[in-house]
Amino acid sequence: MMIIKKIESLTRQSNSGTAGVIGRYVLENRTDFFRCPTKEISAKLSVSKSALVRFAQKLGFDGWRDFIFAYVNELQYVEAGTDIDPDQPFGNETDIKKIVSNLAGLKVDSILETADLIQTEEVEAAARLIHDARRVGLFTMGPNSPNILIGATFARKMMDLGRQIYVPWVDDQKTVARGFGEHDCAIIVSYKGRSYGKDTDRMLEHMREQKVPVIAVTGADHSELYDLARIRLTICSAESPFKKIAPFMSEAAIMYVFDLLYAVYFMIDYSRNADYKDSIDITLESVWRQNERK
Asked: How many angstroms separate the CA atoms of 98 and 93, rounded?
C-alpha cells in the first residue's frame, strides 16, 4: 500500500488520538510538511517529538527520518506519473473514451511501478526455487480472493513447460498445505500480506514449523507474509485495500509478476523448455486440424 494510503487509514483509526492529529496535519500539508523540522511540527501540533517517531513506526518505519525519506520518494514518483485515482478511475458521468484511457493508464503505471520494485536476483531465486522444488503450491490469504484465479492462469502456463503447480481452492488450502515440507515450495499471494482467519493462521504456522520455502507476492512490506517469506516479490500498492471499484492495478501487477516468473523459469533451461512447448503446440495443432476436418 502506498504511504499516503497508510496515513489515511491510520488517521481514521486514531481519529481522536495523537496519531490522528499528526495524520491530519500530514494529509492537509502533504506537499510540504516534510520541509519543517520536527521541533516546529511538535510545537505546532502540541505533541512530543517521540510522538512523531511513534507515528512513523506505526506506518512501518524505524523513525521519522526514514518515514520522510520514503514519503518524499513516493511523492516524486506520483508527481511524475498519472493523476488517475486507482480506487475510483471513473465516475457515473465519465465518458467511455476517458474510461478506456484511464484503465490503460492504471495498468501501465502498475506494471512500471512493479518493475521498479522488483529485484532481479529475487525473481531469479524464485524461478530456481520453483524449478528445483519437489512440489509447488500456490496459495492466497483472503477468504474470497480473486488472486486464486490469477494464480490458476499462471499454473496453466507452467503446465506447458511440464511444471505442475497445485492451486487449491480457498477451502482446501489448509489441507493441501499440510502435505508440504522443506523440499517443496509455496507461492503465497496477498495484497495486504495479512491473515484473515484461523485457517490461514494454521497454514502459515505449518509452513513456518516445517520450514517450507515461501515466495511472497505482496504489496505489503511489513506484514506476517513478508516476515515469513524466504523470497519477496513486491508489487505496486497504490490501491486502498477495500474501498475501490475493482483491483485494476493490483491484478495487473500480480499477473506481471507471474509472467516474469514464467519467463525467467523458461530461461533456466531454454532449449528444453522451448522443445517441450513446441511439442505441446504441435499436438494441439494436430488435434485442432483433425477437429476442423470433421
From this structure: 10
**pTM tops 0.85, yes or no:** no
Rounded Cα gap, residues 153 and 157, in angstroms: 7
Do the Cβ atoms of 22 and 34 come closer than 8 Å? no
Amino acid at 76: Q
Determine the Cα–Cα distance for residues 90 and 213; give it in Å rounded to an integer.
41
**Cβ(25)–Cβ(14) under 8 Å?**
no
Query: What is the model's pLDDT at position 15?
Result: 77
Nearest to 127 by CA among 213, 235, 227, 237: 213
Query: What is the rounded CA–CA span in Å between residue 236 and residue 110?
Result: 6
Contact by Cβ (8 Å): 87, 239: yes
**Contact indicator for 120, 266 with CB cutoff of 8 Å:** no
Distances (CA, A) of 38 to 23, 41, 42, 156: 14, 5, 6, 53
Q: Do the beta carbons of residue 166 and residue 135 sit within 8 Å?
A: yes
How many CB atoms neighbour CB 204 within 10 A? 22
Residue type at 226?
Y
Tell me the per-residue pLDDT of 81-124, one tens digit each, with 9 for 90 and over.
Answer: 557 888 899 999 999 999 999 999 999 889 988 998 888 999 99
Q: What is the DSSP letter of 233?
A: E
First to last CA, the chain: 53
CA dihedral 250, 254, 259, 263 (to 10 degrees): 130
Question: Are 22 and 51 within 8 A, CB to CB?
Answer: yes
Are the beta carbons of 140 and 189 closer than 8 angstroms? Answer: yes
Tell me how far apart the alpha carbons of residues 256 and 264 are, in angstroms, rounded to a whole number: 12
